[in-house]
Amino acid sequence: MAFASTSWGTSWCPGWRIRRVSAVVPQPLRDLRLLQRDYSLVPPPRYKVSPLDFVIDRTRVLGSGSFGTVYEAKKVVAPEEGLEVAAKTVAKERLQGVQLDDALYYTAIERYANDQVRATIESNTDAALADHVARYLGFGEHAGTEWLFFERIPGSTLETYFNSETDDIAFALALSQALNINATDSSEDGVHILRHLVLRVASEVLETLVSFTRLGMVHRDMKPLNWMIDEQRRCLRVLDLGSAAFISTPRYGAAIGYNARWGPADPDFVPPERFLDPRFPYQFDVYSCALSLLRIAVPGLRKIASFRAFVEEFRIRHQSDLALYASRVFNGTASFIPDKFVTGLVVLKADDGRLFEFVRQMLRESPSDRLSPEAALVTLAKIHGAITA
C-alpha cells in the first residue's frame, strides 16, 4: 500500500505499488471467522476533509494494486488551493469477501496512523515526523467511497534509484545530489560518497523510527519502495502507514493494528521472527532498515532479483550474521555472492570498521540481540562523528 511523487505513474512516484495480497506474511490460521478484522479497535477519524474539496482525476492513476488505487488530484478550495495531491481509495469494484475486508481494515489502520502522526506534528513535539513522513491532509467519504488524501512529494522512491540503469558512480552522484550531499564526479570518491549516503539514509530513517517508537508504533513495511527522496526538501520521507501496529496503545484490551497470528509485511524485508516479538517489537523495523542500507553499500544488491537471492541465503544459511556471511564469501562457501560485494565491504569497513559492525548489529537474528531504534541512532551519531572528524 503506497503512493508517491514523480509517478505512482507520474507524480507520487515511479514504481510505487499498493501492497499485494502475496505480501501478507502467511500465517497458520485457517478459520475465516478468525481472519475478520475488528473495526471496533480503530478509533473514528480525527482529521476529516470533504472529497468535494478536491478534483480527482480518475484517468491519472499514480499507483494501483490488489487492495486499491491512488489517483492524481488537486485541491480546489482554500486554504492551499491548487495543492498537488495524491488521493487513495479502496478498489471496491474488484474486491469481495476477505480481500475487501482486508483492504478496508488496512485503510482504517493507515488513517489512524496518519491521524497520530499529524496530531504529534501539530503539537510541535516531534520535528522528525514533520520532516520525514508524507504529509497527511485527511480522510473523506463521499457516495460510499472512502478516501485518504496526501500532499504529493516531488521526487522518486529509493527503489527507483536502485532500479536506474546507471553505473555505481552515477547512482551515488544522483542520490547524493537529491539529498544535497556534497560530492564530486571523481571515481576515487565513489566509496566516500556511498559511505555518506549510508550514514544519511540511516540517520533519517532511524530518527523517524525513534519518533514512531514514542507513538508506540511499529511501521512493519520499511523498505525502499516506501522511502521517498523528496527533491524539494532534500530529505527522505517515509510513506505507507497501512501496516502499522500500535503496541503501546491498547483499545478494548487489544493493540491497534496488531495480531500475534497474522500481519502484513513484505517477505523480502521482514526480519527472521516474521511477526512482532512482544518483548522487542521496535527492533522489527530496524532489521528492515539495515537491509536497505546494504543495498546502498553493495552495488550487486540494488536489483531486486539479486537482493532476494541474497536475503534467502542470508537468513537461512548464515543466521543473518553479516560477519559470518562475509567470511564465507571469502572462503568460497557462500552459495550466492552479489556483484561487487567487496565494494560494499570497503564502504562499510573503511576507517575503523564501525559502520560494518553497526549494520551487523541492526541485522542480528534475534530481536533481543538487535539494536533498538534509540540505541541505533546513538551508535550512528558516534560513527558519524568519527568519520567526519
TrEMBL record:
Task: Show the Gene3D superfamilies listed in the entry.
Answer: Phosphorylase Kinase, domain 1, Transferase(Phosphotransferase) domain 1
Matching InterPro entries, A to Z?
Kinase-like_dom_sf, Prot_kinase_dom, Protein_kinase_ATP_BS
Residue sites binding ATP per the record: 92
Record the organism: Cyanidioschyzon merolae (strain NIES-3377 / 10D)
GO molecular function terms here?
ATP binding; protein serine/threonine kinase activity
Signal peptide annotation: none
Regions crossing the membrane: none
Give UniProt keywords alphabetically.
ATP-binding, Kinase, Nucleotide-binding, Serine/threonine-protein kinase, Transferase
How is this protein named in the record?
A: Similar to serine/threonine protein kinase
The segment(s) forming the Protein kinase domain are: 56-387
